[in-house]
Amino acid sequence: MKGSLIDYIIIAAYLMGIAIFGIISGGKQKSVKDYFLGSKAVPWWAVCFAIVAAETSTLTFISIPGLAYLTNLNFLQVTFGYLLGRIIVAFVFLPAYSKGDLKTAYTFLELRFGGKTRSFASIVFLFTRIAADGVRLFATAIPLKLMINISYPEAIIIMAIVALVYTYTGGVKGIIWVDVIQMFTYLGGAILAGIFLLNLIPGGWGTVVSAASESGKLSVFNLGFDKGFAGFFSQPYTLIGGLLGGAFLSMASHGTDQLIVQRLLATKNLKDSQKAIIGSGVIVIIQFAIFLVLGVMLYAYYGVMNVRSDTVFPKFIIDVLPPGVFGIIIAGLFAAALSTLAGSISSLSSSTMMDLYIPFFGNQKSESSQLKISRMFSIMWTVLLVVTALFFMNTTQAVVELALSIASFTYGGLLGTFLLGILVKKAKQEDALAGFVAGIFIMIAVISLKLVAWTWFTLVGVIATLIIGGLLSVLSDKEKSRL
């Protein structure tokens, strides 16, 4: 074991405190709406912080510094795209959502196309989220395993149980308020680690800049034209690829993914949800800059090492940080993990309940019965997340890129279907379903054959879905005019 007694007291107190705070802040839920939407009474700034915390998993905490250690600051280009995508979500998607009494992101698809499209989108979301967050849960186990010398399965189960406790009892309102605490905890932990790291490097910041400059680690912008046409699309972190890829990925994750939309639906009105989503984009740029610079500092401290990039920051935490500070940093790491994990459990449960169970089986059940079943779904999805995480224990790819690649299999088709509903007024349910399915199959081919880098995945899926869905709507409209 690396940690001292004080470290374990800090970590245990934090985990117990977070669970208790989540239970208390969630209050009592009397209905499914209370449990999954927080009675639409959560202030926008809390939702803003919760969005950032929900999308910031252990992947960001350990993999992004490792990415900068291995390469440079080019990933920051993607975050500029993230902000652009959120602005589009705020002014294109959210006004469309505000017109109806939406309970999930996919209620919009039912209102626009029909029940089949809503059910299909929900099922696609469930499979995508369980796979992507299985990777994130596994990433949490990496430092926990190193810290207390337990197995990956044991580490995964510990984190899952803590998240389930306050998700089960506090609902989405409890999750949001816990996420506010989590965001400041993990960001504070990262900044504290950076301060200690800087003090350990002879010459401080000047040495960091010198070492990083010599190795090209301070490069932020990469036009990517130097490798020809094919090379341009095979590079993940070019300026155009980052802006477009980040924008479309953010439009999909924050405009069509129940994990984030669930939080936006908890605000009081449209204006509040718009402030929350755009504000989160600004914070995310700052946050990624902090983690990337931390990776550059790790390079200045360690130099070149023959290790997996995901383990560089955990190695520093475990081998170098003093007692007390070590416990605070690990608590911050767990904060990043728990925020995503709890949000994932709640969003999976809400989509299962609202989009699938109630429309097909539970409409006649009482509010109390629906609430009990919703909590049972929370337990079910926690177990499935644990099982999924076990499948990724032997992966060699950087976990942040693996998780984003998994999401990209379906994000393009999902976002394309939403855009089809908003932009193509004549599109019908059959057009939407055909475009959605075609978009997914095209993405399977594109990703399997490695035709483009991961930052282009969502855009390719969107274009495929819109073209196919749009053409079918035109053809069906012409067919009707002949009759």
Question: How would you explain this protein's 3D organization?
Answer:
The model has no long low-confidence stretch (mean pLDDT 81). The protein has helices at 5-26, 32-37, 44-55, 58-70, 76-98, 107-112, 115-148, 152-200, 205-214, 228-234, 239-255, 258-264, 270-302, 312-319, 325-362, 367-390, 399-423, 429-448, 457-482. With 483 residues, the protein is an all-alpha fold. The protein contains 19 helices and no strands. It has a single domain (5-396), classed as Sodium/glucose cotransporter (Up-down Bundle), CATH 1.20.1730.10. 79% of the residues lie in helices and 0% in strands.
Give a short summary of the structure.
This protein has 483 residues and is an all-alpha fold. The protein has helices at 5-26, 32-37, 44-55, 58-70, 76-98, 107-112, 115-148, 152-200, 205-214, 228-234, 239-255, 258-264, 270-302, 312-319, 325-362, 367-390, 399-423, 429-448, 457-482.
CATH superfamily: Sodium/glucose cotransporter
Percent range of helical residues = over 70%
What is the mean predicted local confidence, pLDDT? 81
Distance between the termini: 77 Å
Query: How would the global form be characterised?
Result: globular
Biggest sheet record: none
Given helix and strand content, the structural type is: mainly alpha
CATH topology: Sodium/glucose cotransporter
What ranges have pLDDT less than 50 throughout 5 or more consecutive residues? none
CATH architecture: Up-down Bundle
The arrangement of helices and strands along the chain is HHHHHHHHHHHHHHHHHHH
Figure out the total of helices.
19
Q: Name the CATH class.
A: Mainly Alpha
DSSP strand content:
under 5%
Count of separate structural domains: 1
Rg over C-alpha atoms, rounded to the nearest angstrom? 22 Å
Task: Say how many strands there are.
Answer: 0
